[in-house]
Amino acid sequence: MSLFGFSLKPRRAKTAQTAKDRLQLLLAHERAGGSGAADFLPQLQNDILEVIRKYVTVADEDVEIRLQRDNAVSSLEINIEMPADSGKKPRS
Amino acid sequence: MSLFGFSLKPRRAKTAQTAKDRLQLLLAHERAGGSGAADFLPQLQNDILEVIRKYVTVADEDVEIRLQRDNAVSSLEINIEMPADSGKKPRS
Q: Whose C-alpha in A16, A79, B23, B43 is 20 to 30 A from the C-alpha of A48?
């Protein structure tokens, strides 16, 4: 399954018999100046997770986060596995 | 420049002389049940944009959003261009 050229690779079969939904988020921040300034991804990561939790129930142990930073590009990858149909009503 | 197998492709040179930062976000939700239920990406899209605006100044016209949905996978792509060094202090 390939979307936009990035692929949802099969996750480890931790709970092989349980149907799982998967949420994959990739975020890249490319800085023209290459200054290394304004690197807000570590904070943004928490905010995004909080926002996702408005919609689905996510256990901490089912979240996998990778953060990479160099001078010109910072990138954030968040992989979440959750029981199928774990959706919930968003808070208003 | 390729990260995780997805590539930050060069954007249109709308303001060719101005250094631009770019933020690219890709999000895919794969539903095990394939039911089409719990498709919260349209709402999540607004929440994520709001969260990003805590950290950087983003003009509406610099945001490009693509949302795709089928039975098993919904995906969201957000591309943002912003002036270099448009970072701001996050609200507490």
A: A16
CATH class of A20-83: alpha beta
Nearest to B87 among A19, A40, A75 (CB): A40
Cα separations in angstroms, B42 against A35, A40, B47: 34, 24, 9
Residue spans per domain, chain B: 41-84
Q: Is A34 on the interface with B (CB under 8 A)?
A: no
Say whether residue A13 is in contact with chain B using an 8 A CB cutoff.
no
pLDDT in tens, B51-91: 999 988 899 999 999 999 887 888 999 999 987 766 675 65
Q: How far is CA A20 from CA A62, A80, B34, B63, B73, in A?
A: 11, 10, 11, 32, 13
Q: What is the ipTM of this complex?
A: 0.74
| Residue A22 touches partner B, C-beta closer than 8 Å | yes
